[in-house]
């Protein structure tokens, strides 16, 4: 049986208290929302915070409201609530769908959208017990100095494996938070960085408070997930595409893929291939090939990277065809 390291649990009810506890305990503290990722990682001794600051009793961090054409989601809203919320299903159905595809029901009952945005990256050589990692001599991301995937280089390429960020990115969502120097806001598409050791712009003491998704009646979004089993599993590949309905077709087409490298990849150059109009099969083919050309998965998980790469154009094509079918 894997045991947790010793820690002291704090249960604040206000964001100001969370901030005060983070300031008091500094690097020894970590916030925990649903704990569905952090607690297993602590059992594997990937993190050993002496103080855990729970967010689940902070009412300000919960719930979904619609305000001035913006869907405003509290960071501690559970994935189950998000997947079932009528406003989310109406204004951002792809986000509800992404939430409903995370893990299984028990994990969605506890896991939150804030935790999903801040999810640690994953790798075959990292998400293992301490005993397993000791035998290998650890790795760059934790306690070692070598990356067993690239074998050279000083960057970790563990996979970003969260399902909701690609959808939030193509929908132009923003994330609000508070930190030691006050409130901050990032566009979700600028939140992630290309280093799997710590793959977000969040700094020590930062807490995500809300996620804001602009509402547009003309925009359509499609989310697709590839995984080994149709339940519980992390994504091998997640694709999100969005575009705006206009007379004669579509405009402002964008796409994001994740599950491959350390951050979600915004597919570049689609605006040069597709300037607007109808989405025909030939155009979809070209867009899918463009996505394939930009994706180079490595051996950071047990599933063959060449197969994962080959599935990029397949899933992007499916997503674009689903989008086209939503013309009404
Ligand atoms: C078996 C299994 C399958 C899974 N499958 C999937 C899957 O298919 N797709 C997927 O996306 N995820 C999956 N997960 C991972 C996880 O359950 C989800 O990503 C979940 O949304 C994490 O949310 P949480 O509230 O439990 O995060 P926690 O575990 O509480 O926290 C995760 C990290 O985020 C930080 N954090 C949490 N909230 C905040 C905040 N408000 N501000 C700043 N930092 C914060 C924590 O400090 C920690 O570092 C799976 C997990 C398991 C165990
Ligand atoms: S990608 Fe390399 S450094 Fe990162 S977790 Fe895997 S083995 Fe470690």
Automatic annotation (TrEMBL):
All copies of domain FAD-binding PCMH-type, residue ranges: 2-218
A Pfam family hit: CO_deh_flav_C
The keyword Flavoprotein belongs to this UniProt entry's keyword annotation: yes
Keywords in alphabetical order: FAD, Flavoprotein, Oxidoreductase
Superkingdom: Bacteria
PANTHER family for this protein: XANTHINE DEHYDROGENASE SUBUNIT C-RELATED
Designated name of the protein: FAD binding domain-containing protein
Origin species: Gaopeijia maritima
């Amino acid at each position: 049986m894997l045991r947790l390291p010793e820690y002291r649990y704090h249960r604040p009810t206000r964001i100001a208290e969370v901030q005060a506890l983070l300031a008091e305990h500094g690097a020894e503290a970590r916030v925990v929302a649903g704990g569905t990722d952090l607690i297993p990682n602590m059992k594997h001794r990937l993190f050993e915070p002496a103080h855990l600051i729970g967010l689940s009793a902070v009412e300000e961090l919960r719930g979904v409201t619609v305000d001035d054409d913006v869907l405003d989601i509290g960071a501690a809203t559970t994935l189950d609530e998000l997947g079932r919320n009528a406003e989310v299903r109406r204004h951002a159905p792809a986000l509800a769908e992404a939430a409903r595809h995370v893990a299984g029901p028990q994990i969605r009952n506890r896991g939150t959208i804030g935790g999903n945005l801040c999810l640690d990256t994953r790798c075959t050589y990292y998400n293992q017990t301490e005993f397993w990692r000791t035998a290998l001599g650890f790795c760059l991301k934790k306690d070692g100095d070598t990356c067993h995937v690239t074998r050279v280089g000083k960057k970790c390429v563990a996979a970003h494996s969260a399902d909701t960020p690609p959808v939030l990115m193509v929908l132009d969502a923003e994330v609000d938070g508070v930190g030691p120097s006050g409130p901050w806001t990032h566009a979700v598409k600028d939140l992630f960085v290309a280093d799997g050791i710590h793959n977000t712009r969040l700094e020590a003491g930062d807490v995500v408070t809300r996620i804001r998704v602009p509402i547009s009646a003309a925009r359509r979004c499609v989310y697709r997930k590839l995984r080994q089993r149709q339940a519980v599993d992390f994504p091998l590949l997640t694709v999100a595409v969005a575009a705006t309905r206009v007379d004669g077709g579509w405009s402002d087409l964008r796409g994001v893929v994740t599950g491959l490298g350390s951050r979600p990849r915004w597919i570049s150059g689609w605006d040069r291939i597709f300037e607007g109009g109808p989405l025909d099969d030939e155009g979809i083919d070209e867009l899918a090939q463009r996505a394939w050309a930009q994706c180079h998965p490595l051996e950071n998980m047990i599933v063959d990277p060449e197969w994962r790469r080959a599935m990029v154009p397949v899933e992007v094509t499916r997503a674009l065809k689903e989008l086209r079918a939503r013309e009404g």
